[in-house]
Amino acid sequence: MYVEKNGTGRYEVLIDSMTLGSGETSIFDADGSAIIIHVTADDNVTDPAGNSGDRIACGVITRAAAKKM
Predict the structure, then answer these.
(1) 0.85 cut: is pTM over it?
(2) Is residue 1 within 8 Å of residue 37, measured between CB atoms?
(3) Which of 1, 23, 32, 41 has its CA 20 to 30 A from that of 7?
(4) Distance (Å, rounded) from C-alpha 24 to C-alpha 51?
């Protein structure tokens, strides 16, 4: 994800190892889920944070009520 100087960014991803639905691979498990943004890119080698620097933002992922269309 690249973030512009004005603080906006966009990231889209397709992940087949987790789901927004229910079941074993649901992100809505007992301990919850969040997304964390780091200062620099992940090196895809170093654990646990990929040598990606300080955490600068995070967001909790919660299930919203279904909307009737």
Answers:
(1) no
(2) yes
(3) 32
(4) 29
Rg (CA), the chain: 15
Burial class (CB in 10 A: 0-12, 13-18, 19+), 60: exposed
| Cβ–Cβ under 8 Å, residues 37 and 8 | no
Query: What is the Cβ-side half-sphere exposure of residue 29, based on CA atoms within 13 angstroms?
Result: 10
Q: Give residue 20's identity as a one-letter amino acid code.
A: L
Domain boundaries, the chain: 1-69
pLDDT tens track, the chain, 69 positions: 777 888 788 888 888 898 888 888 998 888 888 988 888 888 888 887 788 889 888 989 888 887 887
